[in-house]
Amino acid sequence: MSKLTKNEVIGRAALFVAALFWGTTFVMISSTNDYFPPAFLVFMRCAIGSGALMLFFIKRLKKISWDYILISAFLGFLMTIGYLMQGIAITNAGCPPGRCGFLVATYCVLTPFISWFVEKKRPNVYHVIAAVFCLAGIAFISLPDLLRDSAVGINFGDLLALIGSVVFGCYLVYLGRYVDTHDPILLTIGSLFFGAVYAGAYSFFFENTAAIVWNAQSVFAAVYLGLVCMSVTNALQAIGQRYTPAPTAALIFSLESVFSIIIAVLFWHEKVTAPLLIGCSLIFIAIVISETKLSFLQKKLSAAVFRKFFS
């Protein structure tokens, strides 16, 4: 394995931090169920996120062209569909949260193959093996919820969650394609802006906005999800994916499930269990396989074979 460049290390670190922040969203989103319909919450997150980035990077807005607008409209559409499928699956379509989280997280397995279809880049065997390990790890982490919800049969919400998984995989692949030639911050601003437009339109026509509740808790959750979990994380994702292949990015993002559990253990008294430890270990192994291609084992095996036959 060739040594990572400085930019590649920074890119992976940015994706790691993004996954860490995304790991906090589970607790925050679950606290808004009684206050916001799912599409309206997506609208709030995107609107706050894009507004904050516009103010912070106001000088860069001069560089926006029709090319940026068209690409951002496309990326924003994918992002919005992914979030909406996940939210609607849980709140309106009967997919239990544990099962939905598992189904959506399968994008870590799908991304190498979506990249193959879109970019014509065949995934190597290590990407495939890592994806399988990652999926198994997510299954172990989600296992308690999946067993608890085992009485709930296959339903329309499961299909929506799977659609969301495919869409998130497509978003990763296409974002990775465009950040090579475009400013990642401007792409983030544009994607969030169009995300707010799409989600706002859906909420206006299809949701009961009269049921929205404003109080200190709902406002704090909306601001946190918008500023930290949308503007900061999506900017980090766009920057990080400039130097990170989409399959590797998907594996790093799978750490979101690990971080969400750690946060639940620290702040919500979630118990540390054997399946949890196994799941975290499998995801860690998946990332090691993807990043190193087991070169350290190959060197040891080669040395062992050399000693066996030539010593």
How would you portray this structure in words?
This protein is 77% helix and 0% strand. It has 311 residues and is mostly helical.
Average pLDDT, to the nearest integer? Answer: 80
Write down the Rg: 20 Å
How much helix, percentage-wise, in residues?
Answer: over 70%
What's the shape?
globular
User: Mind describing the biggest β-sheet?
Assistant: none
Number of helices: 14
Beta-sheet strand percentage? Answer: under 5%
Q: Spans with pLDDT under 50 lasting ≥5 residues?
A: none
Order of helices and strands: HHHHHHHHHHHHHH
C-alpha end-to-end distance: 27 Å
Class per helix and strand makeup: mainly alpha
How many DSSP E strands? 0
Helix and strand arrangement:
Layout: H1 6-22, H2 25-30, H3 38-56, H4 66-91, H5 97-104, H6 107-119, H7 125-148, H8 156-178, H9 184-206, H10 216-241, H11 246-253, H12 255-267, H13 274-292, H14 295-310
Describe this protein with a few key phrases.
globular, mainly alpha, 311 residues
Summarize the structure.
It is built from 14 helices and no strands. The longest helix is centred in the N-terminal third of the chain and has 26 residues.
